Amino acid sequence: MCRHLGYLGPPVPLRGFLFDLPHALATQAWAPRDMRGGGTINADGFGVGWYPPGADAPVRYRSSMPIWSDAALPALAAATSSGAILAAVRSATAGMPVTETAAAPFTDGKWLFSHNGVVRGWPGAIAGLAGDLPVEDLLTLDAPTDSAALWALVRAKLRAGEPPAKAVPAVVDEVLAVAPGSRLNLLLTDGTQMFATTAGHALSVCARDDAVLIASEPLDALPSWKSVPDGRLVVATASYWEIT
Ligand code: GLN
């Protein structure tokens, strides 16, 4: 079940999180340590979104290929630095397509979003929730996947002006109510704040004074990694984080 990470802090090259740290995302793609609910490797695509210094909106690079097979990415990631990064590697849920557009992060304006998990009984289970969305939202889903639909549900609340700290856990609660047993680790950022839920999958946080890193699995052996209990919301900026 996919792995994702989010970083806020001083600008750093993307490459450390993607390739260089001992348990970087590329390692988690072929040797994840804590896959739950099926899946063994994360080879069905990847994506990375980052905010160039001074920019409001993120840049995104996605692919349907395994992250280790992209020959251009290591150099690109070494030459690109950012203080706000969201990246993911994907293990497609059975029956869902392996396409670039199904890989996180999903984006809208300033937002980047990722989902690690599965909606049980997809798609019927959430037909009622999706039915409340404007038809344009359904027609413009990135891909016919549970993750893209979850992004449409979160995005609708954000567009309606709901604060992200309410919108993200509200979608988790609403989906769990109609699709019990779903795994819904969501990760959202606007480049200054991050919101991450734990619902059925692992998540850890590593913080120092001026940086916060949230990841499905710790990227190194530093003792400062803290595991987030299930059923919680992590809210973070570069200099602050809390589990609520
Ligand atoms: N169900 C989602 C997909 O297929 C996410 C998969 C995952 O977390 N492994 O894209």
Automatic annotation (TrEMBL):
Any one GO BP annotation for this protein: ergothioneine biosynthetic process
Ranges of residues in domain Glutamine amidotransferase type-2: 2-244
Pathway note: Amino-acid biosynthesis; ergothioneine biosynthesis
Residue stretches spanning the membrane: none
InterPro entries the record matches: EgtC, EgtC-like, EgtC_Actinobacteria, Gamma-glu_amide_hydrolase, GATase_2_dom, Ntn_hydrolases_N
Keyword Aminoacyl-tRNA synthetase: no
Gene3D superfamilies membership: Glutamine Phosphoribosylpyrophosphate, subunit 1, domain 1
Keyword Hydrolase: yes
EC number(s) from the headed UniProt entry: 3.5.1.118
Keywords assigned by UniProt, alphabetized: Glutamine amidotransferase, Hydrolase, Transferase
Catalyzed reactions: gamma-L-glutamyl-hercynylcysteine S-oxide + H2O = S-(hercyn-2-yl)-L-cysteine S-oxide + L-glutamate
A single GO molecular function term of this UniProt record: transferase activity
SUPFAM superfamilies xrefs: N-terminal nucleophile aminohydrolases (Ntn hydrolases)
PANTHER family: GAMMA-GLUTAMYL-HERCYNYLCYSTEINE SULFOXIDE HYDROLASE, GLUTAMINE AMIDOTRANSFERASE DUG3-RELATED
NCBIfam families (UniProt xref): ergothioneine biosynthesis protein EgtC
Function summary: Catalyzes the hydrolysis of the gamma-glutamyl amide bond of hercynyl-gamma-L-glutamyl-L-cysteine sulfoxide to produce hercynylcysteine sulfoxide, a step in the biosynthesis pathway of ergothioneine.
Protein name, entry field: Gamma-glutamyl-hercynylcysteine sulfoxide hydrolase
Species assigned in the record: Actinoplanes lutulentus
